[in-house]
Amino acid sequence: MTPQEPNHSQRLVPDPEAEREVILSARDVCVAFGKNKVLDHLDLDVYRGEILGFVGGSGTGKSVLMRSILRLIPRQKGVIRILGEDYDKVREAKKIELDMRLGVLFQQGALFSALTVRENIQVPMREYLDLPKPLMDELAELKVAMVGLAPDAADKYPSELSGGMIKRAALARALALDPDLVFLDEPTSGLDPIGAAEFDELIAQLRDTLGLTVYMVTHDLDSLFSVCDRIAVLGQKKVLVEGTIEDMLSFDDPWVQSYFQGKRARRIPGTPRKPDAQQDPGSSPADSRKSEAQ
Ligand SMILES: Nc1ncnc2c1ncn2[C@@H]1O[C@H](COP(=O)(O)OP(=O)(O)OP(=O)(O)O)[C@@H](O)[C@H]1O
């Protein structure tokens, strides 16, 4: 070893960056619909145990990326690895195993209206596992409790639930198979400020107790400031910047500045704000909790 080369084996302080496990990686991802190129050579890493907030202006491709990761829409190019495995290259049995490690909460909950909460939670169990009914009932009740719903919610139909209860029931279904990684598509949209804050708290609790990794598409600045460990911003068809809130606040891009330091962000206590960031951009967060409350 030459004197110029660092001797990593003698490092005394562990490098936290080096020890984080990448649970999801996207490399060089391109998605287009006809001539409409939505994602262009996009790269992204999600680390185990983190809550990643994924933001971007309306129509920039946040849902497209999530759906592409979940293979609900095809991509033209790029590699997506889940738990280190390239889904496109693994055998069928491994594909099923990988599918079981992912949970999804779609924006409107997407519960089956003809099924009770219990039956909704049991849908993935029936699809992937072969369990006796009493055990499935027990597991569903456990999930109901885990998301903070009262036991009697298990036998209700989605039409009998409030918006917040629907989100929780949908989260319970997303957790049915004890996934490593859950995707949440705007989980707090449509909730009142108290319900949204409680939902954020629940997500943080589940991350802490289950070691869950959370990929959360959101416009909710309160969630971004209060529960997200890192944030990735989608812009110009790729991830423009990823990092902590502090990284966002110091990132030199007009959209990022306006988003994180605009009128709504400034209302969050403790948010440093630059004097020149007066305006929210045209495609700024549509549903900050305060505006919902007004
Ligand atoms: N199935 C599809 N077919 C054709 N175009 C699509 C399809 N899905 C999405 N798009 C286009 O891809 C672009 C990105 O859409 P996407 O829904 O991912 O935006 P978004 O960032 O999630 O927006 P929002 O924050 O408003 O939900 C839009 O131009 C949209 O019209």
TrEMBL record:
The keyword ATP-binding applies. InterPro entries: AAA+_ATPase (IPR003593), ABC_transporter-like_ATP-bd (IPR003439), ABC_transporter-like_CS (IPR017871), P-loop_NTPase (IPR027417). SUPFAM superfamilies: P-loop containing nucleoside triphosphate hydrolases. Residues 264-294 are annotated as: Disordered. Residues 24-261 form the ABC transporter domain. It comes from the Bacteria. Transmembrane segments: none annotated. One of its GO terms (molecular function) is ATP binding. Keywords: ATP-binding, Nucleotide-binding, Transport. Belongs to the ABC transporter superfamily. This is ABC transporter ATP-binding protein.
